[in-house]
Amino acid sequence: MNDIFEAIQKTAIRIKDAIDVKDIGYSQQENSSGETQLQLDLQCDLIIEEELSKVSSVHTIASEEKDKELLLHNDGEYFIAYDPLDGSSLVDVNLSVGSIFGIYKGAFGAQNMVASCYVVFGPRVELVFAQDKAKLYLLQAGEFEFVKEIRLNEKGKLNAPGGTQQNWEPYHKEMVDSFFAEGYRLRYSGGMVPDLHQILLKGGGLFSYPATSDKPEGKLRRLFEVFPFAFVYEAAGGEAINGKENLMSLGHSHIHDTSPCFFGSKYEIARVRDVYSKQG
Ligand code: AHM
Ligand code: MG
Fold first, then answer.
1. Residue nearest to atom 18 of ligand 1 (CA)
2. What residue ranges do the domains of the chain occupy?
3. Cβ distance 262 to 179 under 8 Å?
4. Whose atoms come closest to the Cα of 95: which ligand?
5. Which of ligand 1's atoms lies nearest the C-alpha of 224?
6. Of 51, 107, 106, which is closest to residue 84 (Cα–Cα)?
7. How far is the CA of 54 from the centre of ligand 1 (A)?
8. Can you identify the CATH homologous superfamily of domain 2-149?
């Protein structure tokens, strides 16, 4: 597992460089020497593929940018699903973005997850790696240094409601409003990595991406986004559900399957469970 953690750190340093030097992320754009530029998220995908290819314990990878899984080492035991640059359109407006990694043993699937990791590319580069605990690291002078263990409070103050409000169910809107009525503050950038990171570091709150009329299965992908963050939130003492069930108890039938999802501290998730349990 340490070799995987080290490889992820290398990808983070290379992705940070790619974000910094890249002509702003439009695909098929020509650079100053007339070469076609690779879209930034595809470039990040290749960086991760290249670094994980060097780790013999990695059996197979699946990327949000690839249609199919890719076998790397027949003798490896780990299956890694990653989103190379989540929220990549936010790079163009200079907001934070992130990479997400779910590390599974033996096969992809929430029940097989053994570790999870994400990297936030903001004013600073921070990395959270979760096994039994969620640990925060900060990139300083080319090295990731351990900062602290992350623990959520029982109750937070932030509310990050995803999806288009027009397409929310009325009971979902009522629930979101009930938190605002209680003093919760809106914090939503449109990047799940910085939005979920903020809730984790500020002690708690709720991030939701519900089923909507246009996206009945939600938007966020189980293997690359939903399960990895569910694992981190549970390791930090929070909870993660799809409305009724724990996200980590869900299956998947395709690597790109999505799910409605709610991540938060215990108080907020209890309310979500209560509201959603009353729906059919
Ligand atoms: P992406 O994988 O295409 O970048 O989309 C994922 C992003 C998440 O980071 C974010 O939480 C969500 O899409 C925002 O969606 P919306 O604008 O519908 O709220
Ligand atoms: Mg994504």
1. 163
2. 2-149, 158-277
3. no
4. 1
5. 2
6. 51
7. 30
8. Fructose-1,6-Bisphosphatase, subunit A, domain 1 (3.30.540.10)
Cα-to-centroid distance, 273 and ligand 2 (Å)? 25
Question: What's the confidence (pLDDT) of residue 34?
Answer: 46
Ligand nearest the Cα atom of residue 166: 1
CA–centroid distance, residue 190 to ligand 1 (Å): 6
Q: Which segments of the chain have a pLDDT < 70?
A: 22-38
Query: Ligand 1 pocket by C-beta < 6 Å: which residues?
Result: 83, 86-88, 162-163, 190-192, 219
Q: What is the pLDDT of residue 28?
A: 53
215: Cβ contacts below 8 Å, ≥ 6 apart: 163, 167, 258
Ligand nearest to the CA of 261: 1
What is the reported pLDDT for 119? 98
pLDDT for position 36: 53
Q: Do the domains 158-277 and 2-149 match in fold?
A: no
CATH topology of domain 158-277: D-Maltodextrin-Binding Protein; domain 2 (3.40.190)
Q: Enter the pTM of the model.
A: 0.94
